[in-house]
UniProtKB/TrEMBL annotation:
The keyword Hydrolase applies. It comes from Nocardioides hankookensis. InterPro entries: AB_hydrolase_fold, FrsA_esterase, Hydrolase_4. It holds the Pfam family Hydrolase_4. Residues 33-144 form the Serine aminopeptidase S33 domain. Keywords: Hydrolase. The keyword Hydrolase applies. GO terms for molecular function: hydrolase activity. This is Alpha/beta hydrolase. Belongs to the AB hydrolase superfamily.
Length: 295
């Protein structure tokens, strides 16, 4: 399925997106088709694993607007490869506004779709909005403090201290860059056994294995779980029960607060992507959920 490249502006920066046009009229009304606003997780780009999800949803009759955050992938912005939770949420909301203006879509039926870090952003972005018709949070990271405690099971204290020191150095002086994924024992944002192979398996040509070390500080203050109770539309939370990156127990607390439908999968954080054991079930559940609540 061919996607159309499109740009939009967030914070004065030109951001890149891909528009997948929904097929058929199964979910269309006189106002148009629903549109999915789709974003990736930590340092992720549209060409790194999102396209199979976008194509499946478009085939089911939804338009999809998948975008890169500023400073990542095909989007503009400087500094590059630096995560700002405030900035990414601003980008997400700007993408919602841009998606609502697409031809043939219903601006009052936005679907917010996010995986991992963006699985938390969609909670914050949906809270208190009347134009959001549904939310899909895939292996969402909803509580940075809980994620830090969760990481103690898979990282040594020395490894975590090294990342923290690098973050402070970057915050106080010249930027300190480190890999997004690295082998266990090395400096990196994700060093769990197997995570490097898993991420590289979905990495697209615009993806860069580099991130500002301040990401740990940003994650510490990332708590969209506090807004989960303010979601006023149907929500689907898809939880990997053996997720070593996004704590499943935090996802469940957020899902309970959001009165969400929950689906569980017997896998880890990356097992939801194409070619992995849980992918087909994850996609089927998304299509069934959205077809039901939007039809």
């Amino acid at each position: 399925m061919k996607a159309d490249p499109i740009t939009f502006v967030s914070g004065g920066v030109e951001c890149a997106a891909s528009h997948f046009t929904g097929q058929g009229d199964a979910l269309a009304t006189e106002a148009g088709r629903p549109v999915v606003v789709m974003a990736h997780g930590l340092a992720g780009t549209v060409d790194s694993g999102l396209v199979p999800f976008a194509e499946a949803l478009a085939a089911a009759g939804l338009d999809v607007f998948a975008f890169d955050y500023r400073g990542f992938g095909l989007s503009g912005g400087s500094p590059r490869q630096t995560v700002s939770m405030v900035g990414q949420l601003e980008d997400y909301r700007a993408a919602m506004s841009a998606a609502a203006k697409l031809p043939g879509v219903d601006p009052q039926r936005l679907v917010l779709w996010g995986t991992s870090l963006a699985g938390g952003h969609v909670i914050s972005a949906a809270a208190g909005r009347s134009d959001v018709a549904a939310v899909v949070a895939l292996t969402p990271l909803v509580d940075g403090l809980a994620a830090g405690r969760h990481a103690l099971a898979t990282h040594t204290k020395a490894e975590m201290l090294r990342s923290t020191v690098a973050g402070f150095r970057s915050k106080l002086g010249a930027p300190v860059m480190m890999p997004v994924v690295a082998p266990p024992g090395r400096l990196g944002a994700m060093t769990i056994e197997g995570s490097m192979d898993d991420y590289l398996a979905i990495a697209g040509p615009s993806w860069v294995n580099e991130i500002d070390a301040t990401v740990g500080m940003e994650l510490g203050g990332h708590r969209p779980i506090k807004s989960a109770g303010d979601i006023g539309c149907p929500a689907l939370f898809q939880v990997a029960d053996f997720d070593r990156s996004a704590p499943p127990h935090s996802s469940m607390k957020a899902a309970f607060a959001a009165r969400a439908e929950v689906r569980h999968y017997p896998g880890d954080h990356f097992d939801v992507y194409a070619g992995k054991p849980c992918h087909d079930a994850v996609v089927a559940h998304q299509v069934a959920f959205l077809t039901r609540v939007l039809g």
